[in-house]
């Protein structure tokens, strides 16, 4: 079994805390498996009686009547009758449709229209059930109707949100084992979507490509009432090819024009990127002025929640090793609880004509967690002197005490160069250094 200890521990910390546990994340990343297999197994091993663990799968036709919010609430209360704690798992909670307040419809359960304001939805039933002293409630939902922005808006401080991601490299390697280098290259290529990990290489490719067509794009089109998906797909392809580059809507629009020979306005681009972020497909890293100590500007870097999904958009053709390494480092930092920005700062330097000019400098990542702070440069190789000088140049210009790290795709342990900069191999960084060990 693939272990998801980080998320299991989050569930255990939130156990019986009086709030519903709302598990979100990109589709097919293992939300249902986390609850129904890993967490349920843990509870049983701890001695919880099987009859006090209830799994309600709302995508099962045998449970369609419980898609009515009031009937769902009545059913759950009806099976949790004694005073002992009952653990209730409701899978695919978004299947619960919204109805008009029955007090306004002579007791009838009438599906609500968008304009209706006095309604009963899955939010009401989740919050209502969580107030029962003998019910510890856990729900999962898909991204077409239950996105990150919805959770923040609907539940605010009334729920514990656990955001599940595809397998981190740490989780992936703990499962596949073997030679570190081989495991890393497999992860770079195919990522950590749980079902993809379990398939053979050719099947992995077809599965990952199919996720976009059959699930992700369809979810976004449905959610946002978009009639056509061609622009959405092309934008996803463009961002895939520009992973880790500083982008804004104008640059993307220009790239779109050169690729598609057609125009797309900036607001549409910004909306589409927002849809990808809300669906947990993309993450953004904002620029942080290292000297001014604040986030700045409209430029962003975008990374995929999973490198396999990113590569699927490029048909797994000529993947850029540096881009994938950077994507993996970003995801692993986030997985380990770091706040991550693109580091930037200005310097005044002399040009060839001897004139003073202002120049912007960039560090791949400025990562912070508690009292730990790092500048991080990610590169495939620094054996070339020109490449090495390019990577360390921002560090030379930065005169502060923050640890400066260069992550390289080599099987080397942590060391220091003559300037005191940390040079570390990707595996040592991902599996040890990043944890503060």
Would you write up a description of this structure?
- The protein has a domain at 5-164: Rossmann fold (3-Layer(aba) Sandwich), CATH 3.40.50.
- The relative contact order is 0.09.
- 41% of the residues lie in helices and 22% in strands.
- An 8-stranded mixed β-sheet has the order 9-8-10-11-12-13-15-14. It has a 5-stranded parallel β-sheet with strand order 2-3-6-1-7, with helices on both faces. Strands 4-5 form a two-stranded antiparallel ribbon.
- The mean pLDDT is 92.
- With 437 residues, it is of the alpha/beta class.
- It is built from 16 helices and 15 strands.
In order across it, which strands form the biggest sheet?
A: 9-8-10-11-12-13-15-14
The fourth-level CATH homologous superfamily of the domain at 5-164 is P-loop containing nucleotide triphosphate hydrolases
**CATH topology category name of the domain at 5-164:** Rossmann fold
The best one-word shape is globular
* Low-pLDDT windows of residues: none
Q: What proportion of the residues form beta strands (DSSP E)?
A: 15-25%
CATH architecture of the domain at 5-164: 3-Layer(aba) Sandwich
What number is the mean pLDDT? 92
Quickly count the helices: 16
Separation, N- and C-terminal Cα atoms:
26 Å
The secondary-structure class comes to: alpha/beta
- Whole-number radius of gyration? 24 Å
Q: Give the helix proportion (percent range).
A: 40-55%
Highest-level CATH class of the domain at 5-164: Alpha Beta
DSSP, total strands: 15
Taking the sheet with the most strands, its summary is: 8 strands, mixed
């Amino acid at each position: 079994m693939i272990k998801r200890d980080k998320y299991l521990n989050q569930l255990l910390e939130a156990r019986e805390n009086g709030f519903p546990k709302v598990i979100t994340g990109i589709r097919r990343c293992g939300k249902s498996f986390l609850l129904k297999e890993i967490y349920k197994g843990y509870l049983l091993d701890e001695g919880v009686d099987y009859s006090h663990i209830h799994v309600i799968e709302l995508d099962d036709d045998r449970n369609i009547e419980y898609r009515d919010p009031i009937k769902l609430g009545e059913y759950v209360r009806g099976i949790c009758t004694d005073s002992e704690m009952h653990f209730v798992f409701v899978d695919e909670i978004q299947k619960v449709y919204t109805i008009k307040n029955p007090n306004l419809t002579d007791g009838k359960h009438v599906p609500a229209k968008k304009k209706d304001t006095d309604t009963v939805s899955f939010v009401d039933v989740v919050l209502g059930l969580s107030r029962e002293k003998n019910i510890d409630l856990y729900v999962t939902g898909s991204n077409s109707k239950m996105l990150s922005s919805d959770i923040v808006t609907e539940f605010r401080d009334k729920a514990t949100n656990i955001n599940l991601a595809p397998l981190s490299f740490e989780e992936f390697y703990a499962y596949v084992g073997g030679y570190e280098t081989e495991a890393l290259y497999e992860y770079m290529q195919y990522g950590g979507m749980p079902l993809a990990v379990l398939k053979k290489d050719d099947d992995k490719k077809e599965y990952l490509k199919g996720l976009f067509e059959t699930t992700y794009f369809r979810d976004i089109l449905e959610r946002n009432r978009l009639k056509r998906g061609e622009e959405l797909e092309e934008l996803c392809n463009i961002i895939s090819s520009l992973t880790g580059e500083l982008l804004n809507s104008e640059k993307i629009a220009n790239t779109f024009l050169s690729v598609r020979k057609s125009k797309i306005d900036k607001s549409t681009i910004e909306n589409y990127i927002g849809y990808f972020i809300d669906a947990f497909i993309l993450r953004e890293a904002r620029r942080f002025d290292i000297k001014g100590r604040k986030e700045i500007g409209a430029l962003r870097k975008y990374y995929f929640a999973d490198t396999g999904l990113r590569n699927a958009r490029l048909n797994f053709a000529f993947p850029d090793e540096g881009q994938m390494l950077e994507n993996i480092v970003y995801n692993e930092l986030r997985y380990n609880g770091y706040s991550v920005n693109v580091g930037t700062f200005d310097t005044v330097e002399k040009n060839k004509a001897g004139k003073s000019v202002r120049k912007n400098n960039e560090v791949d990542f400025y990562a912070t967690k508690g009292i730990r702070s790092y500048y991080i440069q990610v590169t495939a190789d620094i054996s070339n002197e020109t490449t090495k000088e390019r990577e360390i140049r921002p560090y030379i210009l930065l005169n502060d005490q923050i640890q400066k790290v260069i992550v390289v795709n080599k099987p080397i342990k942590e060391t220091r160069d003559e300037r005191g900069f940390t040079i570390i191999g990707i595996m040592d960084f991902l599996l040890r250094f990043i944890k503060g060990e």
